[in-house]
Amino acid sequence: xxxxxxxxxxxxxxxxxxxxxxxxxxxxxxxxxxxxxxxxxxxxxxxxxxxxxxxxxxxxxxxxxxxxxxxxxxxxxxxxxxxxxxxxxxxxxxxxxxxxxxxxxxxxxxxxxxxxxxxxxxxxxxxxxxxxxxxxxxxxxxxxxxxxxxxxxxxxxxxxxxxxxxxxxxxxxxxxxxxxxxxxxxxxxxxxxxxxxxxxxxxxxxxxxxxxxxxxxxxxxxxxxxxxxxxxxxxxxxxxxxxxxxxxxxxxxxxxxxxxxxxxxxxxxxxxxxxxxxxxxxxxxxxxxxxxxxxxxxxxxxxxxxxxxxxxxxxxxxxxxxxxxxxxxxxxxxxxxxxxxxxxxxxxxxxxxxxxxxxxxxxxxxxxxxxxxxxxxxxxxxxxxxxxxxxxxxxxxxxxxxxxxxxxxxxxxxxxx
Amino acid sequence: xxxxxxxxxxxxxxxxxxxxxxxxxxxxxxxxxxxxxxxxxxxxxxxxxxxxxxxxxxxxxxxxxxxxxxxxxxxxxxxxxxxxxxxxxxxxxxxxxxxxxxxxxxxxxxxxxxxxxxxxxxxxxxxxxxxxxxxxxxxxxxxxxxxxxxxxx
Lengths: 417, 153
What we know:
The complex is a heterodimer.
Chain A: E1 19-23, E2 26-31, H1 35-41, E3 51-52, E4 55-56, H2 59-72, E5 76-80, H3 86-99, E6 102-105, H4 112-119, H5 128-134, E7 137-141, H6 145-148, H7 152-157, H8 168-172, E8 174-179, H9 184-189, E9 194-196, H10 202-213, H11 226-238, E10 242-246, H12 248-253, H13 258-270, E11 273-277, H14 284-295, E12 301-303, E13 310-312, H15 318-323, E14 329-333, H16 337-340, H17 343-351, E15 354-358, H18 363-367, E16 370-373, E17 383-386, E18 392-395, H19 406-416
Parallel strand pairs in A: 5-6, 5-14, 7-8, 7-10, 8-9, 10-11, 14-15, 15-16
Antiparallel strand pairs in A: 1-2, 3-4, 3-16, 6-12, 12-13, 17-18
Chain B: H1 4-10, H2 24-32, H3 42-46, H4 51-60, E1 72-74, H5 84-88, H6 90-95, E2 113-116, E3 119-122, H7 140-143, E4 150-152
């Protein structure tokens, strides 16, 4: 056993207890990491090639071409950042300022609203270490960490013994899942801890819970068993330290966050509850923090090229900007928007001059005019990243590479500008 | 896991005794305990009409090679390496309270479960509560597995 632990960039849990064995500059064996982490850290099956107009080129030429595309564009878009180090994100923000670009990340259609509310201190949050040491009631709402963050339950939220939770999960912790289908996580929570609601029923179920917590009869249009809601309200009321892990399932079903705020207010008046967003990509929250520091907004920003002022609004989100066709070039880093954006929007993105910076081959790269491979963050290059609960974690370099890190690629584009 | 009745239904049910057992039911019990394999039933292997049942039965018992002394099998193709069993196993918690018991990487080799390359592996099975004379039928690792990748036979 060694004390030489590395950090896994597989998801936003950023597990910092991974041991690796290396041979010939490649990771051959990994300990403690889950399958998701292993798949990411062992590297890509097909690494990205360096190309200009789909033909092989050297790094200098492609960086020059990338800078030229950004220079010629009136309204470029810089998107991605979920899988980039915080250092690279800061340079990307600088580039956006210089070129008067739209800058946005995946949080714009992901956990953005929750992180915004947390950074504006509208929602109470805590760190995952608090969860391990104190949490006795954990709720996963619209989330399935058994698949999305495999080690969430074992490392923090349910199974481990913490300072104030010495007796383990059987006696000291309660796991509750609210979801529209029986997920692998709800399998662990068991029938008593699983609350199945209909699609789009989240807001109503929250209001019913608030009623239950206020000792009123909880009514829902889908006739959810009132007794079960009252039982759940009771469990939540008795919690000494509660946590709600908010998943995309909940966020996508809410038109606005009001019901969640109401529920959290009520919960915190009768008990003690915290929110943790179930962020997917390893440093999406880092981008939100960095942009918030710089501009006061977490995403959906357009910089004014003359004054460098940041404008913020729904119309500057990646989807809206592409839909309006106001974007005339795009730089994508550490993301694959062509496979995650809606088809009409993605089609337009594929038509405009496109630069892709990534360690691995992806769909976006097949349509990009310029592709620049970068080192795999957390394996081939170091840096910092922000965990899903907002704690900054240092990523360590494990193997040597001759590729530039994402930060170096962006810095050189910045210099060429 | 299939019950003994389900297995029995797939057998020829002729009590031919060719396997050395007196009845097909007895064979089914031993098949479930993995003392026999589907290949030990000659009619099932040789006769065309039982081919479908033979395929079903051999599919049911393929991972027999991985059984440890306590009867623990890890279905590696189902395991996601979440580590729930590592943290939940009472033996692991007693052996390594600050590491495995607290959700962190194991700090000692005395633990039973370890995740290697994203899949859980069982070591030190002699420490398992299901081993030896004073067996406790502990199910901590099975109950906590989200994908049902761990099984005892």
